[in-house]
């Protein structure tokens, strides 16, 4: 099976023969790449949760995550969802494109 290249890989090929104007500094267009240190409380929580790494999450998602998404959408946007309406894809960039 041959997947399409990621959009930014395609863009890099298109731009590969272009010489940038040296009068300007490049603008970073990274998306979702942290540019800061991970806070201590997150590192501690990750370290304390390593016992959960011995199994994959359910493909449908864990109940506590689905419940959290429903609560967030309700509190933040006043959108009322049911568990059947919550879907997500974890660890897979391909589903984003």
Blueprint of the fold:
Blueprint: H1 7-15, H2 40-48, H3 63-77
Could you explain the architecture of this structure?
The protein has one domain. Helix content is 34%, strand content 0%. The protein has 3 helices and no strands. The mean pLDDT is 84.
Summarize the structure.
It contains three helices and no strands. The protein is mainly alpha-helical and 97 residues long.
* Percentage of β-strand residues: under 5%
SSE order, one letter for each helix or strand:
HHH
Question: Low-confidence stretches at least 5 residues in length (pLDDT < 50)?
Answer: none
Q: Could you report the average pLDDT, rounded to the nearest whole number?
A: 84
Radius of gyration, Cα only, in angstroms? 20 Å
Number of structurally distinct domains? 1
Task: Tell the overall outline.
Answer: extended
The percent of residues in helical segments reads: 25-40%
- Calculate the terminal CA-CA distance, rounded to whole Å: 17 Å
Number of helices: 3
Q: Sheet bearing the most strands, described?
A: none
Structural class: mainly alpha
Question: What is the β-strand count?
Answer: 0
Which terms would index this structure?
97 residues, 34% helix, single chain, mainly alpha
């Amino acid at each position: 099976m041959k997947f399409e290249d990621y959009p930014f890989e395609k863009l890099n090929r298109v731009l590969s023969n272009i010489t940038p104007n040296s009068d300007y500094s490049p603008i970073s267009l990274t998306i979702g790449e942290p540019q800061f240190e991970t806070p201590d409380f997150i590192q501690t929580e990750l370290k304390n949760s390593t016992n959960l790494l011995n199994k994959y999450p359910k493909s449908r998602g864990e109940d506590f995550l689905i419940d959290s998404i429903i609560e967030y959408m309700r509190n933040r946007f006043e959108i009322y969802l049911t568990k059947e309406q919550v879907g997500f894809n974890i660890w897979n960039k391909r589903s984003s494109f």
